[in-house]
Specification:
mainly alpha; 3 strands; elongated
Length: 150
């Protein structure tokens, strides 16, 4: 009997299989973030800033799906590492605009590369049309949970 065989319930469970693929597929990213004492929430914030550029804290909370109450602490941590900066919005002095620093953009590139590299290894058994089909199906599931891309 194969000692690595998992119970049939898990083998047939979409939740178990996607969680396992996600865990394996983000291993390099997790190691990089942990080496910097950062979390996946930090990575999400960094990705949002990389994609959307300088945005307000409220917009960043919406775009990254991070609780506004926790966002300030994450921003403080990233700011103290020189990854992002906050500046008063010249058009509305009540708002802060959050942007990645040049060092932050370098870190974002490294983190995204780690994530992409591991994902390519994990899903390498699938051809491109299969990966696209899986991506589309998972995006449909995410949309049902309110994580629609806007």
């Amino acid at each position: 009997m194969n000692e690595h065989r998992i119970p049939q319930f898990q083998w047939n469970s979409l939740s178990y299989l996607t969680a396992r693929a996600g865990r394996i597929g983000t291993q390099e990213l997790t190691e990089l973030m942990e080496s910097e004492s950062l979390s996946r929430h930090h990575f999400t914030i960094i990705c949002a800033l990389e994609e959307f550029g300088g945005i307000s804290q409220n917009d960043l909370a919406d775009r990254s799906n991070v609780n506004r109450g926790h966002l300030v602490a994450y921003l403080d941590q990233l700011s103290s590492r020189g990854i992002l900066e906050r500046e008063v919005d010249p058009e509305d002095r009540r708002r802060n605009v959050i942007t990645l620093t040049p060092e932050g953009r370098k870190f974002a590139a490294r983190a995204m590369e780690a994530a992409s590299h591991n994902e390519a290894k994990v899903f390498g058994a699938l051809d491109e049309p299969q990966r696209e089909q899986l991506r589309t199906l998972l995006q449909l599931v995410a949309t049902q949970d309110g994580e629609a891309r806007q």
